[in-house]
Amino acid sequence: MSTVTITAAEVNKLRQQTGAGMMDCRKALTESNGDFESAIDYLRKKGQKVAANRSDRDAKEGVVIAKANAANTYGVVLNLSSETDFVAKNEEFIEFAQQVADIALATGVTTVDDLKAAAMGNATIGEKLMEMVAKIGEKIEISRFEQVTADAVVPYIHSGYRIGVLVGMNQAVNDAILLAGRDVAMQIAAMSPLAVDSDSVSAEMIAREKAIAIEQIMAEGKAADMAEKIAAGKLNKFFKDNTLLPQAFVKDNSKTVGEYLTSVSKGLTTVSFKRIAVGS
């Protein structure tokens, strides 16, 4: 008989990894002299549906859900990830992700941990996740979770739940602004801008891009003072290509996104956005 002392923390760790019951996990560890891999094998040999939710397994598939409240003033977007595309396309998996998003929307939680602690029926979302892991046998997790609050928030799901976008705008919602928000969300899904505009780009990123530009220019034999001036021009192009409002509008390249929004309603602009793609 084993003389290894099994702690409550070890039992809980095995439970989190496998989804098996506490007593079963304690017995498995005891019979396996505290070895986790042997304990997992023990549970499987006993006919348990073991999740084997180990950190070395990749969950790079899944679905992204984006939703807004009835007033379109608050929205959530989350990625429920899985290991395989087969699981991601399962209706039960997609419905579970929808329910998690509904709870996120209703409760206003702001972190993945708080979302997992939220109630879902007679359990928490985290416990329901473990049940699903045990049932399916794949690593399943809420890998990303974001929120947007604004005068108008428009959600958009692109390409079979592969990309989700939330767009926050500065005017109260109406049909025209909903349509414009969807157009902008499609732009964000396709072009993946880094920020709303140059003012929203971090100082660290600006400094890095400027340093790269200066080094490239000086490598071409330009003097340092000239390199500074040319680098400023390169930064402007960087902002135009990589931030939302100055980008060419994909539906009408004669306008920028900012100009398109102004044409919809005077003063209309995007104040924030969140974009999540499967596997990102």
Can you put this structure into words, describing what you see?
It is built from 11 helices and 10 strands. Among the domains are: 8-45, Helicase, Ruva Protein, domain 3 (Orthogonal Bundle), CATH 1.10.8; 61-196 and 257-277, 2-Layer Sandwich (Tetrahydropterin Synthase, Chain A), CATH 3.30.479. By secondary structure, it is an alpha+beta fold. 36% of the residues are buried. Strands 1-2-5 form a 3-stranded antiparallel β-sheet. Helix 1 crosses helix 2 and helix 9 crosses helix 10 (224-242). Helix content is 47%, strand content 21%. The protein has helices at residues 8-18, 22-31, 36-45, 85-88, 91-107, 112-117, 125-136, 175-191, 203-219, 224-242, 257-264; strands spanning 61-68, 74-82, 119-120, 123-124, 141-149, 152-158, 163-169, 248-249, 252-256, 270-277. Strand 8 and strand 9 form a beta hairpin.
Write out the strand line-up for the largest beta sheet, numbering strands in chain order: 1-2-5
N-to-C series of helices and strands: HHHEEHHHEEHEEEHHHEEHE
Here the CATH topology of the domain at 61-196 and 257-277 equals Tetrahydropterin Synthase, Chain A
Q: What is the alpha-carbon Rg in Å?
A: 24 Å
| Structural category | alpha+beta
| Tally of contiguous helical segments | 11
Q: Main attributes?
A:
3-stranded antiparallel beta sheet; Helicase, Ruva Protein, domain 3; 10 strands; 21% strand; 11 helices; 47% helix; alpha+beta; Tetrahydropterin Synthase, Chain A; 280 residues
